[in-house]
Write a structure and sequence with these properties.
By secondary structure, the chain is an alpha/beta fold. The chain contains six helices and nine strands. The protein is globular.
Length: about 150
């Protein structure tokens, strides 16, 4: 999820890992804070005792025509990389349908609080999304929304 003013909108994180010169690229109109996520995500995965792939990694933030800002995409990008690496089992991927991930990653892999969680969760609910994975520091704010 991202914010456009005070309204949330869904962002799909598309991840591809392929052979080639090691590179980590984020496309889809990311601002500087989203581009900086490359270092946070790679370090958080490595410090969670998972070897970060020495491959070509491409993450697309769709829709590509809307600017994306902030650190709320860190967690979803890390999940996308772990899925592409085969570190999340196929049966668990099916369980992630109707789930969004919101959070900034610390370098040790913990999920940090983000701003704007309430409008993001409100939009998620309106889209029929059943689960939101977020920082425990955002839980009280997100809990305001009735199921």
């Amino acid at each position: 999820m991202a914010l456009n003013g005070l309204e949330g909108y869904l962002v799909e994180i598309q991840t591809d890992i392929s052979n080639g010169i090691p590179e980590f690229e984020i496309v889809g109109l990311p601002d500087t804070s989203v581009k900086e996520a490359k270092k946070r995500v790679a370090t958080a995965i490595k410090n969670s005792q998972i070897e970060f792939p020495s491959k070509k990694i491409l993450i697309n933030l769709a829709p590509a025509n809307l600017r994306k800002g902030g650190s709320s995409f860190d967690l979803s990008m890390a999940i996308g990389i772990l899925i592409a690496m085969g570190k999340i089992a196929l049966q668990n991927i099916k369980n992630l349908e109707n789930t969004i991930f919101l959070g900034e990653l610390s370098l040790d892999g913990k999920i940090n609080r983000i701003n704007g969680i309430l409008p993001m969760c409100m939009e998620a609910k309106s889209l029929g999304i059943k689960r939101v994975i977020l920082s425990k520091y955002n839980a009280n704010e997100a809990a305001i929304i009735e199921k």
